[in-house]
Amino acid sequence: MNKKLLSALTAMTVAGTVSADDNNLVIEITSGLPQAKNEMQEKMTHVQASPSTDGGDLLTSLPGVSGIRMGGRAIDPVIRGQSQTQLNILLDGATIHNACPNRMDPPTAYTSVDSYDLVTVIKGNRTVRYGAGGSGGTVLFERSWPIFDDKGYKGDLSSSYRDNGERYELGADLAAGSDAGYVRFITHKASGNNYDDGDGNEVRSSYESLSNALLAGWQLGDYSRLEASFEKAEEEDVLFAGAGMDSPFADAATSRLKFTHQFQSSLVQQMKFELFRSEVKHNMDNYSLRPAGMMLRQAPSTSDTDGLRLAFDARHLDIDWTFGIDMQNSDRDAELQDQTGSVLRLLWPDAQIDQRGVFIEGEKVINMDDVVKAGIRYDHISAEAKRRDEVNAGFSPQQIWAMTGAPAGAGEEKTEDNVGGFVSWTHRLNEQYTLDTVLSRSVRTADATERYIARMTPMSDWIGNPELDPEKHHQLEVALHSVKGNTNWSVTGWYNRVDDYILRQTVAAGMKERDVYRNVSAELFGAELQVKHKLSDNWTLGSALVWTVGNNLDDGTKLSRISPLELTTSVNYRHDNLKAGASLRLVDNQNDVCLSGSANCGGQDVRETPGYGVLDAHVEYAFANGINLLAGVDNVFDKAYTLHESRDDTVNPASFQVAEPGRSVWLRVSKAF
């Protein structure tokens, strides 16, 4: 992580850049106003210093970002009470949809953090250029065109070890080239055994991971660039305490092609064309990696996504414009089989969801104190389950959907025409204070699981709803920033009224339970306070307080998986080549829940979670020869705790939820050349 950059654009920012502060990544935020861009610096505290298992693990270290844990990796991020397809996550411009219906492989599971140069987090909805939806936020994992010195090559080698779970990582990022082009190879291997929680209980969490990426770029004349890449991520023998199955393998292959052209025109300035294809293969079973029960089951699945984006940057009427089109075709198929391969159910019956979008947004500097920005996009969605009539073990998906009231013909092609957009105003009140306001609408279509899942077993059912309407999020965000002397702070309040919120609910179905989906009215709101104070030339103190609420307005119950009140405070020291820091995270108990099970609220919350406090510490030294040594202790006091959003522990019910790791001592060594 020593060369990675992470830009967190919160609800109150228009633009953001970051500085590479090695493993102790410092986030710098700018307000977007001409004379303020050098003032709003180092606004937030650092993200975690310790090595990350994947992108989801990294993101959860940010204030206001939590995660859903099932095992040792593949943490599903949650931003402002929203997750899964409520977040737009792009991996170097490509979209990867999970192949596991149970989300053992969210998109961030296929990210080796060390293989990316820039990570941008945009909380809420303040842009239309990265696809439909994105009501909770947008996360961009990006790679940059390498810059070479006279040597014509550069590289970074890294290795890390963590004692809890005996986890190790090896990585290399090698590039060669010149101004005319480059070739870059990135490889990363990771392995981990089961870790222990704070009570000394072993948590099923072991995994094997290998990723390789080959990238190449060509400078086509003075104004054009072409880049191509192929990336393969392979996961093996991944154990999940929070699921009834484990994953023997999960493979993702992603191809990308990018073309950029600079126009010598005062109107249209740049064109960028991106084309990608991702192919994911996944399997899970309940017998190859754990003691086999009476019924042996496996679930092979695939998720293929094709997409393109064509965008233009222009300037007209003193407005900076970005406009273009994007397309995405998603095809997902999953079967429930016995150990011989005989099909028992179609979990995803060849679910195809296609999106065609057009967007435009513009930004205008009114004067030295005011900037306005607005955007609008239109998306045409078509969705269909191609294998909806196929009968297995006596039932077709259509017949299973009918059990929850779906009409005849459910699963046939259904179309939507969705319109979203935003308008923002940034106003500098005086030399110290800046006010930022954003009003937005975003529309999220139901995903393949919400529409078409068709699992029916003797113990429980999980049935989608092909007639779901898309979610409509209407959000208002207001933020106040202050920059004065050695202290920067900001406070944000936001409110999100959701029409046709897609709710997953457990209901009674005779002698068993059934998970179904329906549209309800809902609201999400919260506040975020962030402060950073420079104590001296060497010492910096930072703190962030985050509060989120979610309500089902139809019946007055709470929404599930809403993060509790959280306060994170960090202190960091830096002198020449030495850095050190400590971070204390205090999390309140969460009693506003919708508990799982038909006898309860029927939600996704496992329990009312108790509060906790966790202390992490690290120290780092950069040697003159390019070697960087970083060491630390996570969970110094060996606290036993769980993230509120995490899954229930199906292996050790006494643990209620999949617990976080106990005390972990770690070491990371890297060499840049």
Could you describe the 3D structure shown?
With 673 residues, this protein is mainly beta. It has one domain: TonB-dependent receptor, beta-barrel domain (Maltoporin, Chain A), CATH 2.40.170.20. It is 2% helix and 56% strand. It contains 3 helices and 36 strands. It has helices at residues 55-59, 397-402, 448-452; strands at 5-9, 15-19, 26-30, 65-68, 76-79, 82-83, 87-91, 118-123, 137-142, 153-162, 167-178, 181-192, 195-196, 202-203, 207-220, 224-238, 246-262, 268-285, 297-298, 301-316, 319-338, 343-367, 370-385, 414-428, 433-444, 454-456, 460-463, 471-484, 487-509, 512-534, 539-552, 566-575, 578-587, 612-622, 627-634, 664-672. The chain has a 22-stranded antiparallel β-barrel. Strand 21 and strand 22 form a beta hairpin. The radius of gyration is 24 Å and the shape is globular.
Structural descriptors:
673 residues, disordered N terminus, four-stranded mixed beta sheet, Maltoporin, Chain A, mainly beta, globular
Q: What value does the average pLDDT take?
A: 91
The Rg value, from CA coordinates, equals 24 Å
Strands, count: 36
Oligomer: single chain
Q: Could you name the CATH topology?
A: Maltoporin, Chain A
What ranges have pLDDT less than 50 throughout 5 or more consecutive residues? 1-46
Largest sheet: 22 strands, antiparallel, barrel
Which CATH-level-2 architecture? Answer: Beta Barrel
CATH class membership: Mainly Beta
Distance N terminus to C terminus? 15 Å
Kindly give the count of domains: 1
- The fraction of residues assigned to DSSP E strands is over 45%
What is the overall number of helices?
3
